[in-house]
């Protein structure tokens, strides 16, 4: 072999061994980060076990006497809370916050190390390519040389060594990437509601990490164990009461309110894909929420929490499959379902080719739903309106069903209809009769009894309600409606608890007042003047609650019954 070939080989071997050295240094750093983060996980587990102590046993004679003789509201609330000392609890919460911040910080650092490792893996792959090329060139030349020269080739550095290094790098990298994905899932799942059993599984998964082998399928086992631990299930669409998507209204606080009254599935407000692709995911430790925030700003575009993970539907406005996928990938791990809005008749949506504009573009519908379905692990659904004729609606619904969506929501109005026009339940019935997947019927459900009425009239599997819930979220309660003023106040508490956007809070409260009373009265005028949640809290005598939430953060969720 020629001298220059020999030199090139030696150079390549040197290069791959340097790449390997750098790669292994990165792996060691990643291991160290993982170990440090494990300490945070253990601290989180300890902190939580303090807060999740079982309630006090009140059945002993002694306790019975104490309670009888001191039957004050305060004592009762202490006993209900298991006598958690607020000071200790607050300290424990702070420890939990520190652990969560530490874990989030770990993810950021580990991610940037992984990016560097990916770069080295790519370099290793390039090294194989050039080694292969060199092999090919040398063998071409070899065909023309003497036996002596052939002997010389036997002493050359061997190509396969480069391949072996590169293969090892690729395998370890894929392992570390999977480990990172698992750590990310664990950290995302942590909340004050995480059970001690789940936490033990997480700790075990975290500590077994170095022994997971990429090729053994062990990782799949852990993923399955993870899903069992987090009780992640596919959405069930039979006999469900569903909160409809509502812009400005359907934020986290309203969804939590509706769920508390009995909603099984809660849609978020429609968010346009253009907006979501500009967002990054952040954990808001102070409120116990996961937020999607426009990069470089504090603008929270979507907020959710672990508690609603299995019932929240993220509704998106889109007119493009690739952009829709890019946007959906940002939120899909934190929501139960991704839904595409195909019913919005507003000029903004139609002009952008979104919402109801999609109803007349079945190819685009196909493109969007098929792309999302192929690439996402969560279910993908859509919500449509009625088309001009029942036959057209049925034809479109059938086409959508063929794409494999697990359910279809049908709003019983046409594009030209106004909200005051009655919803056409009979045309929803036509769709139900033509499909085998569950249909979610929507339109004019204003009382609890309407849930069964619309089901009987349409044969739908589930029922969705928008305005009826906005005006009084207790519509979901089988116990009957609460007074709207009480619901309004409860909603404000939820808005404070989940740090809802003040504009959304004002809008929703004003909708309630406008429906039941009159916005021209002093209450409505004062709401208009409010600039912050604190202003609103003052207006409704909820200042103490506002400051308690500010001071003890997500612990408020657990002590809700005491406060
Ligand atoms: C304030 C408000 C906002 C709405 N925003 C959305 C939305 O973001 N996405 C959507 O698909 N429909 C939206 N809708 C339509 C509702 O989801 C629902 O289809 C419609 O109001 C009919 O249901 P209802 O008769 O129970 O009100 C909105 C409706 C209201 C009242």
Explain this structure to me?
This protein folds into 2 domains: 3-210 and 218-229, no CATH class; 241-481, Aldolase class I (TIM Barrel). Mean pLDDT is 85; it is low at 145-160 and 210-233. The chain is an alpha/beta fold and 563 residues long. It has helices at residues 3-51, 61-69, 73-80, 86-142, 147-154, 159-189, 196-207, 218-229, 252-261, 273-276, 321-331, 347-351, 362-375, 390-402, 425-434, 448-458, 467-471, 484-497, 502-516, 522-529, 533-539, 543-552, 555-558, and strands at residues 241-243, 265-267, 271-272, 279-284, 289-294, 300-304, 312-317, 337-342, 380-386, 408-414, 439-442, 462-465. The chain is built from 23 helices and 12 strands. Helix 1 (3-51) packs parallel to helix 6 and helix 18 packs antiparallel against helix 19. 58% of the residues lie in helices and 10% in strands. Residues 244-247, 249, 269-270, 315, 341, 343-344, 383, 411, 423, 442-445, 465-468, 470 line the site of flavin mononucleotide (FMN).
Which short descriptors sum up this protein?
2 domains, tRNA dihydrouridine synthase activity, TIM Barrel, globular, alpha/beta, 563 residues, coiled coil, three-stranded antiparallel beta sheet, binds flavin mononucleotide, single chain, 23 helices, tRNA-dihydrouridine synthase, eight-stranded parallel β-barrel
């Amino acid at each position: 072999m020629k001298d220059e070939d020999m030199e090139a080989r030696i150079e390549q071997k040197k290069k791959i061994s340097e790449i390997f050295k750098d790669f292994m240094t990165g792996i060691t750093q990643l291991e160290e980060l993982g170990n440090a983060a494990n300490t945070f996980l253990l601290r989180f587990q300890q902190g939580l076990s303090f807060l999740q102590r079982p309630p006090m046993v009140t059945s002993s004679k002694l306790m019975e006497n104490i309670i009888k003789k001191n039957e004050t509201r305060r004592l009762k609330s202490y006993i209900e809370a298991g006598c958690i000392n607020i000071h200790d609890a607050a300290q424990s919460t702070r420890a939990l916050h520190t652990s969560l911040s530490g874990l989030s910080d770990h993810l950021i650092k580990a991610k940037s190390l992984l990016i560097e490792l990916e770069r080295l893996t790519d370099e290793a792959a390039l090294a194989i390519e050039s080694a292969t090329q060199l092999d090919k060139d040398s063998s071409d030349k070899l065909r023309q040389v003497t036996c002596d020269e052939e002997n010389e080739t036997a002493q050359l550095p061997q190509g396969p060594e480069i391949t072996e290094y590169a293969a090892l790098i690729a395998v370890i990298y894929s392992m570390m990437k999977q480990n990172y994905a698992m750590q990310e899932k664990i950290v995302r799942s942590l909340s004050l509601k995480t059970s001690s059993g789940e936490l033990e599984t997480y700790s075990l998964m975290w500590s077994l990490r170095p022994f997971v082998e990429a090729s053994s399928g062990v990782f799949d086992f852990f993923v399955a164990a993870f899903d069992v631990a987090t009780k992640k299930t596919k959405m069930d669409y039979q006999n469900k009461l569903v909160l409809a998507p509502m812009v400005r209204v359907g934020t986290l606080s309203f969804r939590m309110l509706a769920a508390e009254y009995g909603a099984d599935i809660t849609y978020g407000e429609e968010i346009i894909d253009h907006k979501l692709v500009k967002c990054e995911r952040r954990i808001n430790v102070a409120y116990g929420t996961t937020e999607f925030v426009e990069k470089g700003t504090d603008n929270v575009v979507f907020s959710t929490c672990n508690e609603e993970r299995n019932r929240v539907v993220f509704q998106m406005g889109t007119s493009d499959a690739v952009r829709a996928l890019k946007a959906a990938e940002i939120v899909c791990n934190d929501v139960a379902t991704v839904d595409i809005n195909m019913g919005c008749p507003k000029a903004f949506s139609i002009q952008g080719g979104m919402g109801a504009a999609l109803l007349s573009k079945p190819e685009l519908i196909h493109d969007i739903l098929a792309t999302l379905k192929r690439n996402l692990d969560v279910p993908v659904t859509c919500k449509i309106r009625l088309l001009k004729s029942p036959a057209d609606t049925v034809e479109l619904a059938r086409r959508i069903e063929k794409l494999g969506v697990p359910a279809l929501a049908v709003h019983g109005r046409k594009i030209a209809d106004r909200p005051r026009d009655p919803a056409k339940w009979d045309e929803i019935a036509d769709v139900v009769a033509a499909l085998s997947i569950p249909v979610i019927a929507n339109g004019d459900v204003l009382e609890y009894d309407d849930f069964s009425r619309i089901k009987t009239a349409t044969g739908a599997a589930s029922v969705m309600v928008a305005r009826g819930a906005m005006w009084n979220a207790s519509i979901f309660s089988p116990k009957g409606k609460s007074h709207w003023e009480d619901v309004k106040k409860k909603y404000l508490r939820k808005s404070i608890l989940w740090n809802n956007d003040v504009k959304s809070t004002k809008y929703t409260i004003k909708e309630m007042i406008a429906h039941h009373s009159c916005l021209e009265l002093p209450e409505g005028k004062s709401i208009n003047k409010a600039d912050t949640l604190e202003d609103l809290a003052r207006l409704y005598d909820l200042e103490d609650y506002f400051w308690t939430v500010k001071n003890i953060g997500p612990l408020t969720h657990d002590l809700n019954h005491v406060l």
